[in-house]
Design goal:
One of its GO terms (molecular function) is ATP binding. By secondary structure, the protein is of the alpha/beta class. The chain has 11 helices and 13 strands.
Length: 302
């Protein structure tokens, strides 16, 4: 079932175009990671979905409804935490979540189960101003889950968290999506976390989305790195191997790019061609390596 459908969204601020022809779908239970550098348009997409700003053109539907079709029903289908947790600092965690419970006419039993789920213990009775950022994020997530949304939107939820906070939040997000068959749209600069949390990722660059097919293809690619004595002669032996999509020389090493399913066959071909090497490394393409290819032209960070 399709939960979020975005078609041909465009947005400009004054003369600057920040979103260009955005098409995006999220299915039920899917956790989609939205990746891109600052200014790429991630937060703008999330704010448009949330109704905080309006697109110049295009349509957005959640569970088949647009904001124009039925504003109240549309807003009831999702929860969002964008930029920073919005909490009443002088109220306790319990008072915060109970306040939202009453506004949405949620049962106390449901609220208590959420409090248990977010696992902040007795601190639920302390004022929010005493909370760590991780505790604030967990409380905000609990509040977002109160209404059992079909879609959860999280903008940089791990920003500023210590390692324990990141792990706890990751676990909560994955459990929530699985337990409630909830779809999640999440952005983060911590690429390793996106890799662990998400069932699918999509990149945005200069206001445009990178095709899913390219990303999935890249994730199926392995990089084989050979350390050899005579780079040029070995290169001549392997440059035309048909199962290798690309061969390059860098820092006196040979880099071969190949589909994961063909790695064993490649090893046999190297033996047949009497390719001698001092060392071999096999590297799976990660979200980080794909990010570098898209935004840094494959360069390592300086």
């Amino acid at each position: 079932m399709n939960i979020l459908s975005i078609k041909n969204i465009n947005k400009s601020f004054k003369e600057k175009s920040v979103l260009k022809n955005i098409y995006l779908n999220i299915d039920e239970g899917e956790i989609l990671g939205l990746i891109g550098p600052n200014g790429a348009g991630k937060t703008t997409i999330m704010k448009i979905i949330s109704g905080l700003i309006h697109q110049d053109s295009g349509t957005i539907k959640i569970c088949g409804l647009s904001l124009q079709d039925d504003r109240i029903k549309y807003l009831s289908e999702f929860s969002s935490i964008i930029e920073n947790p919005s909490l009443y600092e002088m109220m306790s965690g319990y008072e915060n979540i109970n306040f939202i419970r009453k506004l949405n006419k949620v049962s106390i039993e449901k609220m208590n189960s959420i409090i248990e789920f977010i696992n902040i213990g007795d601190a639920i009775n302390d004022k929010v101003k005493t909370y760590s950022l991780g505790m604030k994020q967990r409380l905000s997530l609990g509040i977002a889950l109160l209404t059992e949304p079909k879609l959860l939107i999280l903008d940089e939820p791990t920003n500023g968290l210590d390692p324990e906070g990141v792990l706890n939040l990751r676990e909560l997000i994955i459990k929530s999506a699985k337990k409630n068959k909830m779809s999640v749209l999440i952005s983060s600069h911590i690429l390793s976390e996106i890799d662990k949390i998400c069932t699918r990722v999509i990149f945005i660059k200069d206001g445009q989305l990178i095709e899913n097919e390219k990303i999935e293809k890249d994730k199926e690619t392995q990089t084989i790195i050979l350390t050899v004595n005579d780079v040029n002669s070995i290169y001549e032996k392997i440059k035309d191997i048909d199962i290798v999509s690309k061969v390059t020389i860098k820092d006196d090493k040979i880099y071969m790019y190949i589909n994961k399913n063909n790695t064993s066959r490649l090893m046999s071909i190297l033996v047949e061609k009497h390719v001698e090497y001092e060392n071999i490394e096999i590297s799976n393409n990660s979200i980080e390596s794909i990010y570098k290819d898209i935004y840094l032209g494959g360069k390592k960070n300086e």
